[in-house]
Amino acid sequence: MCSSPENGAHPTVMRYYFHLVSDSLRIPDDVGVEAGSANEAYLGALKALDDLRGELKASDGRHWNLEVTDSSDRVIVTIALNLRRP
After folding, report:
1. What pLDDT, on a 0 to 100 scale, did the predictor assign at position 48?
2. Residue 1's CB: how many other CB atoms inside 10 A?
3. Residue ranges of the domains in the chain?
4. pLDDT band, residue 53 (cuts 50/70/90)
5. pLDDT at 14
6. Which among 3, 48, 13, 49 is positioned nearest to 34, based on CA atoms?
7. 67 touches 75 (CB < 8 A)
8. pTM here?
9. 29: closest CA among 12, 48, 43, 11?
10. Which residues contact 82 (CB under 8 A, 6 or more apart)?
11. Considering just the CA atoms, what is the radius of gyration of the chain in Å?
């Protein structure tokens, strides 16, 4: 039987990870966040982008992406940070 909010069951919560990836470096997220769906994790990643853009500088010559993965390290979505040089 399928669980759904309509029949009183709680939706499945999964852990998603936000890894910073450049052409030469991967900074893994070892903690992750819990989300009810891949879409909810994606929305959380969008909220985190402003903070990340402020911390990473385009002047380091790297093109940064934010990879959202599930607990099996399967990439759900990749979001380009589009950093601009000062």
Report:
1. 80
2. 5
3. 12-80
4. low
5. 92
6. 13
7. yes
8. 0.73
9. 48
10. 53
11. 15
pLDDT of residue 72: 94
What letters, b where the CB count within 10 A reaches 16 and e where it falls short, cover 33-57?
bebeeeebbeeebeeeeeebeeebe
Q: Whole-angstrom Cα distance, residue 37 to residue 12?
A: 8
Give the sign of the dihedral formed by CA 69, CA 34, CA 48, CA 19: negative
- For the chain, the three-class secondary structure string (H helix, E strand, C coil) is CCCCHHHCCCCCCEEEEEEEECCCCEECCCCCEEECCHHHHHHHHHHHHHHHHHHCCHHHCCCCEEEEECCCCCEEEEEECCCCCC
**pLDDT, tens only, 12-43:** 889 999 998 988 889 999 999 999 998 998 88
Distance of CA 86 to the CA centre of its chain: 25
